[in-house]
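We were asked to recover a plausible sequence for a given structure. The inputs and outputs are reproduced exactly as logged, with field labels preserved.

PROBLEM: sequence recovery
POSITIONS: 188
GIVEN STRUCTURE:
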């Protein structure tokens, strides 16, 4: 497999599970290894590409499909893409996998809700959701459907973000998306 082949790393998990933190670390490592990588973060995309969408199931699916479509345009043109979005519904993630094919790498950032609710920037949001002040909140009043067979299952409450990023980098090297020599050079 060519290290110039595009791919999509799709981080999914609850709010506060570490998706964006790991994605940012990974982005720097992949770029240091000589691969161009574009990052599509769910919160950022909602501000620009999906402005005006709410949090109903239909709006969430529309947001995820938009992120996936943009990611696929980049991926099919040889770009590595990392997407970090809650993407709570399995069927919508499966649609993306079907569209992208074998170069769709689903990464489940698995962290218990009670830990996610204590992480920086999430405490007040989860407290409001648990009091019913925020409706349709994933994991509290709206479901999260965990992946059944992700390419990588990260237990983000049991390892550091750097360790999680290391696991994703190893996967990319093992599957030919990043050259092993470049990873060694980037580590220096």
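RECOVERED SEQUENCE:
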């Amino acid at each position: 497999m060519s290290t110039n082949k595009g791919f999509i790393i799709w981080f999914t998990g609850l709010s506060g599970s570490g998706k964006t933190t790991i994605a940012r670390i990974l982005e720097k490592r992949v770029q240091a290894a000589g691969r161009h990588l574009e990052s599509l973060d769910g919160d950022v995309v909602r501000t620009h590409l999906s402005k005006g969408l709410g949090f109903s199931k239909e709006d969430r699916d529309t947001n995820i499909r938009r992120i996936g479509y943009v990611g696929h345009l980049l991926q099919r043109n040889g770009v590595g893409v990392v997407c970090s979005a809650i993407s709570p519904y399995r069927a919508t993630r499966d649609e993306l996998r079907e569209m992208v094919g074998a170069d769709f790498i689903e990464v489940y950032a698995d962290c218990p809700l009670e830990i996610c609710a204590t992480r920086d920037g999430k405490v007040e949001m989860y407290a409001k959701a648990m009091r019913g002040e925020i409706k349709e909140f994933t994991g509290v009043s709206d479901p999260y459907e965990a992946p059944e067979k992700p390419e990588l299952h990260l237990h983000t409450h049991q390892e550091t973000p750097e360790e999680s990023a290391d696991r994703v980098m190893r996967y990319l090297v093992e599957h030919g998306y990043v050259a092993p020599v470049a990873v060694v050079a980037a580590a220096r």
